[in-house]
Design brief:
6-stranded mixed beta sheet; cell membrane; 3-stranded antiparallel beta sheet; Rossmann fold; single chain; vWFA_dom_sf; VWA domain-containing protein; membrane
Length: 332
């Protein structure tokens, strides 16, 4: 047996105080009758049979509560094997981890905001495989394509600017490594989400984007940061150039738009930290990228049995009511 909502089983501890309360109530009722009528007269007015009925009502009420909580936990037993076909898209998320992503024009920082948005994005995925690539002056695969979103989230949380010793922003390297990370046998159902401030210092991004077009990979780029620029935090203050001036990191939208347009993808500018990954996934990626069957596997389909517990709860609720009707008819 297993339960779909096992958290409700913790409520079964309520049966202990409820049971004690019912026992106390029965005893208190007997004491009040004896106090009001006296022990001898009370015994004549209130028969032992009536008190037994009261005990049974209390017992059935507790059983109704027990089976009601059991029904909420949704017990399941017995299963049948079912073939499950998974359809989806292979999605690589390439995240810029250069020093410029430490700028705080998006709170708490560009990088931290991006990690949070990607974590929320993983909750949206519907059978798609996802992989992570970190890049700065070079790039490397942080998490290969997987259906295990929990594992992907663990790798995501470890992304930081200290991860890659070669600083800079090499968009072309990130795109090429992403192409290598996709399956070589599949030429469709592949997408790259590129999250960066777009300061491409190698100038090879458009060439790599054309390679992505030939490989059938659509790029959806997200621009992070403000066009007016922001200083880069550095030990003792902010990063400065050789002349002693504070270096400002600016969003280069034109490069990111061009990359997306070449592949037929889309561009989104992050506004106040909202990277609109939900819109990219539902309104753009799912419409522009055809899904394919990723795998077929057999899974156990457990049979729902909560209705039996619910039926028993209803029966035990109705039994005390029949006792009351029976007692009333006997008195009349």
């Amino acid at each position: 047996m297993r339960f779909a909502e096992p958290s409700y089983l913790h409520l079964l501890w309520l049966l202990i105080p409820v049971g004690l309360l019912l026992i106390w109530g029965l005893r208190r009722k007997r004491e009040l009758i004896q106090i009001f009528f006296g022990a001898e007269q009370g015994a004549r007015l209130v028969s032992a049979r009536f008190m037994n009925l009261q005990k049974k009502q209390a017992l059935f009420s507790a059983l109704a509560l027990f089976f009601g909580l059991l029904a909420l936990a949704q017990p399941r037993w017995g299963f049948e094997w079912q073939e499950v076909r998974r359809e989806g898209v292979d999605i690589i998320i390439a995240l810029d981890v250069s020093n410029s992503m430490l700028a705080q024009d998006l709170k708490p920082s560009r990088l931290e905001r991006a990690r949070r948005e990607i974590s929320d994005f993983l909750n949206l995925l519907q059978g798609d495989r996802v992989g992570l690539i970190a890049f700065a002056g070079t790039a490397f695969v942080q998490c290969p394509l997987t259906l295990d979103y929990s594992a992907a989230r663990i790798f995501l949380n470890s992304l930081d600017v200290d991860l890659i010793p070669v600083q800079g922003t090499n968009l072309g390297e990130a795109i090429r490594l992403s192409l290598q990370s996709f399956s070589a046998t599949e030429k469709k159902s592949r997408a790259l989400i590129l999250i960066t401030d777009g300061e491409d210092q190698e100038g090879m991004a458009e060439t790599a984007a054309r390679e992505a077009l030939e490989a059938g990979v659509k790029i959806f780029s997200i621009g992070v940061g403000a066009e007016e620029g922001a200083p880069i935090p550095f030990p003792g203050g902010f990063k400065k150039d050789e002349a002693g001036e504070v270096v400002l990191t600016r969003l280069d939208e034109s490069a990111l738009k061009s990359i997306a347009e070449i592949t037929g993808g889309g561009y989104v500018r992050s506004v106040s930290g909202d990277m609109d990954l939900e819109n990219i996934y539902f309104e753009q990626l799912q419409k522009k990228v055809d899904s394919r069957q990723l795998n077929t596997q057999r899974e156990k389909k457990w049979q729902e049995r909560f209705q039996w517990a619910a039926l028993l709860a209803l029966i035990f609720l109705l039994i005390p009511w029949t006792f009351d009707r029976k007692t009333a008819s006997e008195k009349s």
